[in-house]
Automatic annotation (TrEMBL), chains A, B, C, D:
FMN binds at residues 125-127, 238-239, 278, 293-297, 319. It comes from Marinobacter persicus. SUPFAM superfamilies: Chorismate synthase, AroC (SSF103263). Its cofactor is FMNH2. One of its GO terms (biological process) is aromatic amino acid family biosynthetic process. NCBIfam families: aroC (TIGR00033), PRK05382.1 (NF003793). This reaction introduces a second double bond into the aromatic ring system. The lineage of its organism: Bacteria, Pseudomonadati, Pseudomonadota, Gammaproteobacteria, Pseudomonadales. This is Chorismate synthase. Homotetramer. It catalyses: 5-O-(1-carboxyvinyl)-3-phosphoshikimate = chorismate + phosphate. The keyword Flavoprotein applies. Its EC number is 4.2.3.5.
Amino acid sequence: MSGNTFGKLFSVTTFGESHGAALGCIIDGCPPGLELSEADMQRDLDRRKPGTSRHTTQRREADEVRILSGVFEGKTTGTPIGLIIENTDQRSKDYSKIAEQFRPAHADYTYMHKYGTRDYRGGGRSSARETAMRVAAGAVARKFLEQRLGIKIRGYLSQLGPIKAEKLDWDQVHENPFFCPDADKVSEMEAYMDALRKEGDSIGARINVVADGVPPGLGEPIFDRLDADLAHALMSINAVKGVEIGAGFDCIEQKGTEHRDEMTPDGFLSNNAGGVLGGISSGQPIVASIALKPTSSLRIPGQSIDVNGNPVEVITTGRHDPCVGIRATPIAEAMMAITLMDHYLRHRGQNGDVQVSTPVLGQL
Amino acid sequence: MSGNTFGKLFSVTTFGESHGAALGCIIDGCPPGLELSEADMQRDLDRRKPGTSRHTTQRREADEVRILSGVFEGKTTGTPIGLIIENTDQRSKDYSKIAEQFRPAHADYTYMHKYGTRDYRGGGRSSARETAMRVAAGAVARKFLEQRLGIKIRGYLSQLGPIKAEKLDWDQVHENPFFCPDADKVSEMEAYMDALRKEGDSIGARINVVADGVPPGLGEPIFDRLDADLAHALMSINAVKGVEIGAGFDCIEQKGTEHRDEMTPDGFLSNNAGGVLGGISSGQPIVASIALKPTSSLRIPGQSIDVNGNPVEVITTGRHDPCVGIRATPIAEAMMAITLMDHYLRHRGQNGDVQVSTPVLGQL
Amino acid sequence: MSGNTFGKLFSVTTFGESHGAALGCIIDGCPPGLELSEADMQRDLDRRKPGTSRHTTQRREADEVRILSGVFEGKTTGTPIGLIIENTDQRSKDYSKIAEQFRPAHADYTYMHKYGTRDYRGGGRSSARETAMRVAAGAVARKFLEQRLGIKIRGYLSQLGPIKAEKLDWDQVHENPFFCPDADKVSEMEAYMDALRKEGDSIGARINVVADGVPPGLGEPIFDRLDADLAHALMSINAVKGVEIGAGFDCIEQKGTEHRDEMTPDGFLSNNAGGVLGGISSGQPIVASIALKPTSSLRIPGQSIDVNGNPVEVITTGRHDPCVGIRATPIAEAMMAITLMDHYLRHRGQNGDVQVSTPVLGQL
Amino acid sequence: MSGNTFGKLFSVTTFGESHGAALGCIIDGCPPGLELSEADMQRDLDRRKPGTSRHTTQRREADEVRILSGVFEGKTTGTPIGLIIENTDQRSKDYSKIAEQFRPAHADYTYMHKYGTRDYRGGGRSSARETAMRVAAGAVARKFLEQRLGIKIRGYLSQLGPIKAEKLDWDQVHENPFFCPDADKVSEMEAYMDALRKEGDSIGARINVVADGVPPGLGEPIFDRLDADLAHALMSINAVKGVEIGAGFDCIEQKGTEHRDEMTPDGFLSNNAGGVLGGISSGQPIVASIALKPTSSLRIPGQSIDVNGNPVEVITTGRHDPCVGIRATPIAEAMMAITLMDHYLRHRGQNGDVQVSTPVLGQL
C-alpha cells in the first residue's frame, strides 16, 4: 500500500529499476482455475517491447517473463502469482554526469527531494521500463476477462503530435509500428517521426482505450467509482497528463440534450458517458482517452541545475523514444484490464464465481 | 474501503442520501492540536450551498455542520472527527414516476443494476448533495495545510459552455455567482444562463484548481503518484468527465523542447508539468483542470425506459442546477486539499510533525 | 484506514468519545436488500448497556441508536449505513484531577505521548463506551449471516476471576447478569462480585465465542487468515490481553495424534482447530476465547505520576465496572460477526450473492 | 490487499509455494538511506533454516536470498525491495497419494474448498516454507529499528511440550538448537525430541518475543492498536493457535491492584501490560507469547477422507519437524519487527525522519 500496489482484490505490486537486476511483480487475488502460461503474457510484452521499429528506443531487452508461483499444472491456484523479468541490456556506461545533474522534466529532481537519494542509472525506478510488469499483470486480467466474461479491451493511437487518426479500423492497429487505426496516416506519421529524430526533439500523443462487453453494475461509489479508479490507473502511467472518460472535455460545450445518452428498449442511443453512469458501468463500452507528454530526453540542450544548485546545460545522448506515446497502447490496455478485473472481483468476490464441488463434511 | 472512503492516512468516509435523515462523514487521521470549529467548515459549505443565486437550484438547505467528536477544548485530539448535516428541506413529493423510470444520463439505471434497488428520492446516494461532506472535510485539510505549511488552494470556473475566462484575477472569483475570475465575462455568463433556464436545457463547464506553496517531495510512486491520486479524487466528483494536470491535453501537440520546464538556480522557467514530476511534487504550484458535464435533469423530454424495460418519455420537473459546474469550485478545492493532506501525512506521518513533550518514564 | 476502521469489504469505522456529543459509525459494504431497523441493533445494544444490574457501572445511557442512511423502505440499499447514538449522561463533573494525572494501566499516559493532548473526560476515545458502536455494527453483520447463511454467533462468560463455568448450557446464558452458561455458578459469582465491590478492587474474566454454521472456504491466506483477522478483531477490544483459537494454549502440551482433528465421511472427530485450518474455515464451528484484564479504575489508591512527572497517588471515584469482562460478551460476538461478514464478502463479493433482475439493455 | 500483504506503510507481500520455482517478496515502504545487503538477511534466514540439527526436518534448502531492487550503492533508495529465494531441494517424488487425500489438521481440505484446486506438493502455499520470506523482510525492519531507534527484538522458546524454561538467560538462546534460554533444560529437551521422533509423533511449543527500546506513542487506536496488529501478525504464523500480550491469560485471575502497572518518576513498577496501554506503546518492553500446535505430519496413521469423500488412512512419510515451534523463534521476531516498523512509519511518515538537504528551487 505504500505506493507500488494497484487494486484492492486484484492487487498488482511491482518492483524493479531500469538498470537493476530484474523487474518483478506479484499479482494477488487472481481467481483459481485460469489456464496461464508465460506465452499469455509474452504476446503483450512483445507489443510494448522497445527496439521493434526505428521509431522507438534501440535498447534491446528480451523482456522474457517467468512465472515463479501461483500456477500449478497449467492453471492458477488462487495464490499469488510471482513474475520476474531479468534485465539483460545493462550497458556499462559513464553515469557521472547524470548523477550530478537534474534533467528538466524528469523525476530526477523530485526523487532527490523525496528520498534524498536516487538510482540514476537509466532513470531508475521512474523509468517507463517499470511498465513492462504492468503489461504482464494486465495480460492475466485480460485473459480472465475475455475467457470468463467475453470482455475485450483494445487500444490505439488516435493522435501523434499534430496528426490525427480519422478512421477507426481495428484491423489496422497492429499493421504499423504506431498502433494507428487509420492506414492513410501511417506514412505521414513515419515522415514526421523521421524528421523529429533528426532534430533531436520529441512529441506528445493521444491513446484511446475501449472495453467491450463489460456487464452493467461494476464500480463502487462514491470514491471508488469505476471512472475514478480508471483515471487513477491511467494517470499513473509515465508521461500521462490528462484523462478523459467518454465525451471528456468536449462535454464542457455540450448541452444536456446533446450529452445525455437516451435509452430505448433496444439500447442506448449514444455513449457520451463512456460506459459509466454514477461511477458504475452501464453495459455500454467503457471508453477512455489519455494525453502523453513528449519525452524530455532530448539531444537539444536545455537549462538546468546540478545537485549543488549550480546552473548546467543538459543534453541527453542515450537511447530514447522520441514519442513515448507510441509504445503506450499496451500499457493503457493493461491498466484498464487491471481496473476492470479489480472491480469485477469487488462485485463478485475473490473467487470470481468459481464453483467449488468438493464434498462438505457434516459438522460434529 | 468499500468505496466511500478516500485517503490512506487522512481518510474521509462519507454517508448519506439526498433526501435521507442526514449526511455525515468521519475524518480519520487529522493530526492533533489543530484549532477547529464548525465555522471553519461553514465558510466553504456556504460557498457550495444551493440557492444563493438564481443560477443554481432553488432547493434551500441550511447545510449546517455539527462536529460530534475529535475536537476537545477547541482543538483536534488526533481521534476521528465525526461530522453531521441534518437534511431539512425534504419536501414531501410524489416520487412514483421517478421510482419507475430510469432518467437518461443519471445513475438510476446503473444503481438498479448494481444493487437491485435504489433510494430514488432526489437521486439518493448519487446526488451531488453528498459533496457537502467532502467540502466540510476538505475545509479541515485546508486549514491544516494553510496554517502549518502555508499551502493555499484556490479554484475558479475557467469556462462555462462556450464562454471562456480570459483573465485570472483571483480577487474577482468571489465577486460573482460563477466563481469566474474574469469580470468582463460575468454579464455574458448571466445572460447565457438565463437563456438556458428558459430553454430548459443545461450546459457543461471547466474548473481549474491551483495549490500554491506545496513543498517538493509529496507523492508515492508508482501507482500512488500525487497526480494519479489527484485524478482519482477529481474524477470522483459527480459529473466530472476529464482531468488534466499542468499542460494536460495540450501536451499532445507540444514538442519536448517546448514542454519541458527548464530549471535555473532561481527556479523553474515554466510549469507545463503542473507541479508534479515522476508523480512527486516539485515545489511548483500544483495545477489541475476538470470538465463537468451538463446536468441531465432537463425540462426537455428525452427517451428512456422504465424498470420493466418499456419505452417512456422522461421530463424532470424538480429544482436543478442548469450548470452543475457553477457550484463545483469548492468541491474541487476540497478534493485537492484532501489529496495533498493525505500525501503530506504519508510522507510525514500520522502525527504531522507534532512535537510531543510529556516526560518519558525510564524503563524498568 | 488510520486506525478506526475494521474490515476490507464490510468496513466499520467508528467515532466518538465517552463524554462527547455522540458516538457514531459508518458501515460501508453491507449488501443491499437486508431488512434492517433500529430494533435489530437495539437488542444487542441493550445486552451491552451499563446499569442493568448492580454488577456493572451505574452510568445510565439510553444507548438509543438511530439509522441515518443506507436503509430505504426498510431495507439496506448497498450504500453506507450511518449510525448515531447521542450521549445523554454527561454529568458535569470536576475533571481537574484526572486532567493532570496519569491513571495506572489506563491509556492516559500513552495517548498523551502519541497525541500530545487528550480528551480526559471519562477516558475520551479510549473508553469502552466506543464499543457500543461495534455492537450496533455487529448486529447488522449478525442479521445478514443468520438470515442468508444460517450462521449463528453466540458467546458466554466462561470464567470470572477464579470461578470457572463447568457446564455450557446456552439457555442459561441470558438468565443471569454475567452471561454465565452454568447456572450453578451464578450465586458464587454474585457473592464474589459483591465482595469485590466492597474492597474497591476489580477482576479479570474469560469470554468464549462460537460461530455455528460457517461454510468452509472463508479466509485469505497468508496474512489475512480468518484466525489472524479474528485475533486482530478480538485483541482490539478494550482490556483484552489474550486470544485463543480452538485448543489455544493447550496445544503446547498436546501431541500431534491428540491435536489433529481426524476426518470421516460423517465429519470431523474433534475440533481442536477451532474451525480454521491453514487460515480458512473448515465448516466446523469457529471457536475463540479471550482474556480480559481487570479494570484499573479502583477505589484503592495506586502510585502514579502527573503530567509534569511528579509522583501522585491516584484513586478513582467514578462509576466503573469492577469486571469489564461481564459486559464483553456482546462485544466479542459483534467482532466475530464483523470479521466473518468481511471474509464472506471478500470470498463472495460486495453484493453478497444478490441476484439482480433488471433488464439489461443491448449495447449500441 | 488480497491476503498476502501485511503492513500499511511498511508493506510486505510474499509469494511462492513449497515446491515451486522460487519464493519471493516485495517490501514496499522501507525508508531510504539504510545500508542493506543480502548478509543482513542471511543471518536470520540461517537461524530459521531446516536441517541444522537432528531435531528439525532434514530437507536441505540453501535459502539464499537475492536482492533484486530497491538498493543502490549499498543503501536503500525508498523504492520497493524485491527479494527472491530459489527453491533448490525439489526431490522428484510420487505425489499421487497426497493429491487424493486430505491430511488431518492440514490445510488440504480447506484450500480445496476455497479454491477448488491446490498445489499439493509439500503443502504448496500453506507450507511453513513461506515464512522464509517473512524472516528476510523482518531482517530489514530489524536493522532499521535497531540502527535508527535502538530497538532490539529477541525471542526464545519458553516451553517445549511439557518442559518449561525456568530461567531467561539471553546468552543461552543461541547456544542450543531449541532457542531455549535455560541451559539446564536443553538435555531434557533433546531426550524428549529423540523419543518423539522414534514414536513418530509431534508436540506443541510456546515462543516468547520481546522488543526493548520501543518509544512510547506507537499504535493507532481503535482497531489498529499496536497489540491488535501484533496479534494479527503472530496469529498469521503457521501453527499458531494463541497469542498473549503481557500478562495474557493470567490476567483473568488477577485483581486490578495486582495487574495495574504503577508508575513512579523513575519508571513503571511492573509490566503486566506488556508495553501497550490503550493500544499504544508505553515505552516499556513489548512482550508477546504464542502457542504453536504440534505438526500434523505424523508417521502414526490417522483417519481421513479422500477427495471423493471416501474414508482413508493417512500416514506422512516425508521429512518433517516433530516440533514446528523449534524453528518459529526467528519468524515470531520477524513478525514483531514488521509490525513495529509499520507503526513507526505510520506515526512518523513514509520517510522515517529522513532529512533531505538538496536545494529547493524558488517558485516562479
